[in-house]
Every structure is written in C-alpha cells, then in structure tokens.
C-alpha cells in the first residue's frame, strides 16, 4: 500500500477522487487537505469532512489555504452550486462530519512526510496553493514525495478562458511553483479529463445500488452533469494507480502567470523538451470504459 495525501476543493467531481482514494486497495489514504477553489475554504473544508464522514474514512481531514498566493481572480458563476455540492451539502446532520484536525494542512503535510518511512504520494485536484506553500516553507521535504498527481491545466486548452483551466487559473503562481519544483509530476489536464464522463447506463447501474453514498452521488451528479461537465478529479487517482490505461508523454510544461486570457495557461515548450529534461508526465487520453467501470466499482456496495 502506498501512502497518499489528497489535496482538494470539493466540488462535485472532487467527491469521486476522495471515493477512489478511499476504496483503492493499493492506496493508504493518510489525509485529505482542503483548499479554497470551487467554493470558499469554509465550504470546501465542510464538504471534505462530510465526504470523509459518509465514507467512514480513517484519515486526517485538515483545513488548507483560504486564498490563492497572490491574487484572488474575479468570482465566477459556479457549476458546483453555492455550497460546492450542487445544493446537497446539508442533506445530512453535522454528526456525519469527520473530525477536523487541530493542525492546519501545512503542518499535516509536514508531519506525514517527516514520519513516513516510505515516500508519500500526493494527488492534488484543486488549486495548487497548499503544495506551493509547502515547497516554499519546507523545500527539504520534497525529497520525501514519491510523485504528485495533478488535475489541472490542459495543453493550450481552457475552461475558464480559452487557454486556462480552473485550478491553474485560480492560482497560477502556485501552479508555476509546483511545475518548477523538481518533484515527479503527473498532469491530468483537460486533454484527458474531458473524456471522464458517465452515460445513462452507468447512472442506471448506480441507481440500482441503492446505497446511501450512491444515492448521494446521483444527486450531486445530476446537478452537475446537466451543465455538461466532465468528472475531472478522479483521473488524478487513476493515473497514479493504473497508468497503463492512459496515453501519456513526458514533456516540459510551463505556466503563464501574466495577466490576460492566458493567465494560468499550461503549455509544452517542445524546444525546451530538447534541451531541458521533461518536468512532468502529461496525460492525453484514457480508456473511457475503464474510467466508467472504476467509478461504478468504487460505488458498488459490498455484498
Ligand atoms: C477542475 O475545476 C474544478 O471545478 C473541478 O473540481 C476540477 O478540479 C476542472 O477544471
Ligand atoms: Ca477540484
């Protein structure tokens, strides 16, 4: 089993990254760290505690950064609803919330990385603020990280501007710091995650499961996918555990932090790929049937 910290901003699709990290037998989910992103930090932390609570996940849940490193981008209409979970964040009583750690995310990262005997994996599916702060505060801890699997960016593709994807657009300086960190990186951007969709068939199977979590999943998905949105975040977990189901290439990726429609854009500098070593593994495609099955398997009640 390999130790993993999941950094997220739940967010409807983040829920499925938490679910996969929790159920995947090869993963030992040590902590869920929240970050401000899809909604503010109070809400993403609440939602992280709720999902960990509903799953009965025996991990730490800690609150992370409340704002991007330098500048807060203008507020956006949110596809995740005002509460981050399509209006369903308060379906359950507060007694279902997982305990919140007294330590903040930065200290939780430090503690887990220092104490772990083996290198730790990180999956980051929100803005990269917590990780950038970690790398600036404790650069020596980078050597304890096995790899960071990121949902963010897209090679010259965007969903917030024509060129910029939400997580990188929200905190481009943080994305830039992480890209340049020298840590082993896997990048699941829009190129691959726009393929992360479910069909009527999977929704019907989910319906038949009739578990508390599958019913909750259907509700939050119905509010979200009606806006024609892909379920991006679980790809970052699958890319770690089953890379052979993906098409990828090792490349040199940079982030544009300038103002304007390219702020937060990720692009491959193929000239630098020749002179510089690739700084990340860019995922471009995946087996869609595999994605759909993975989500269903994770939701399937135990018999
Ligand atoms: C990313 O933005 C968020 O809205 C999703 O949770 C995902 O992490 C997709 O661009
Ligand atoms: Ca997210």
From TrEMBL:
One of its GO terms (cellular component) is cytosol. Residues 4-292 form the Inosine/uridine-preferring nucleoside hydrolase domain. Pfam families: IU_nuc_hydro. InterPro entries: Inosine/uridine_hydrolase_dom, IUNH, Ribo_hydro-like. GO terms for biological process: purine nucleoside catabolic process. The keyword Transport does not apply. The keyword Hydrolase applies. Signal peptide: none annotated. It comes from the Bacteria. One of its GO terms (molecular function) is purine nucleosidase activity. Keywords: Glycosidase, Hydrolase. PANTHER family: INOSINE-URIDINE PREFERRING NUCLEOSIDE HYDROLASE, NON-SPECIFIC RIBONUCLEOSIDE HYDROLASE RIHC. This is Nucleoside hydrolase. It comes from Proteiniclasticum aestuarii.
